[in-house]
Fold this protein.
Amino acid sequence: MAANDRTIDVSIILPVYNASKWLDECLNSVLKQNFEGTFELSAFNDASTDGSLDMLKRWEEKLEAADIPVILGGHQGQQPKGVGFAKNQAVAQSRGRYLCFLDADDVMDTHRIELQYAASVDRQNAIIGCQFHREPANSTERYTHWCNTITEEQLYTQAYTSHGPTVIMPTWFCSRELFDRIGGFDERGKGVPEDLIFFLAHLHNGGNVHRVNQCLLMYRYHPEAATHSVHKDTIWTIRIEAFEKHVLSQWPLFTVWNAGKQGRRLYRSLTCKSQKKVMAFCDVDVKKIDKGAYIYEESQEIPKPQVEIVHFRDAHPPFVICMKQDLTGGEFESNLASLNLKEGKDYYFFS
């Protein structure tokens, strides 16, 4: 698969930090790709201290012997610079027209590049994801089911939920042109959800999303994963700002579905301008409804803002839904379906 700078179809983008326990399995999946086009591996070692660099060098020989070009970059500073920096560097040193992102602890199906490349050819402005399975198999079951089963339309409408990007970062495949248009990943380092920031910027720039409905990645779950370093409050703030700017700004008024903890938190997190658009909270809990109103005691306004609490059947769309799905034995889903509303027009999830 010899190739020069102008004929590389796909670059596999691999950031590496202390991944020696997983690299053999990960890189073997690179070696086993069933793809008739040209591809390379672009790996960037972010100051690993566990022998990852030596493993990368050994695999460089093995992959190039199989006619798979390898570009190996990195730095040996005292501290890693973060996954956003490492991915940007791996992209910068690569040559492919398309980028296939891979985490060093994950394993690709042999047909991953083949199928995502085929999907990308006619979707130049799309981030292409795929279905995945978890290792261990029983980890994050609800999250995995959500990612693998939401509809093509929900890839857009459910982008503001706490789950994050509707196609997970380790499955991303896109054109270099798309990546360059967004400007790469946030490089502030540990604790920053660089994938969510990039994903929302892509959507708000008119970008598309598509999922290949085949399981093409083993997505490993373990305590050392970078995702665990991102604080939930950081993600919440990013979600709120994007949701206000791109959804709530289009609505003159709206109802918050859930008069409990999550609904009230949403309300308190909004700007004053958005708070004044809240017509009511709605719920099914008689105790909450009987209170009549939610009083925003922390407000500096006099008198304190009050928002009516009503039964969901007496509420008016559009709704911001602050309910987690699949946790009420189907009761919530049945209530929502009974209103015959359209997601993305009459309601959005912010759960």
Remarks:
- The chain has a mean pLDDT of 94.
- The two ends are 47 Å apart (CA to CA).
- The longest helix spans residues 232-246.
- The chain has 13 helices and 14 strands.
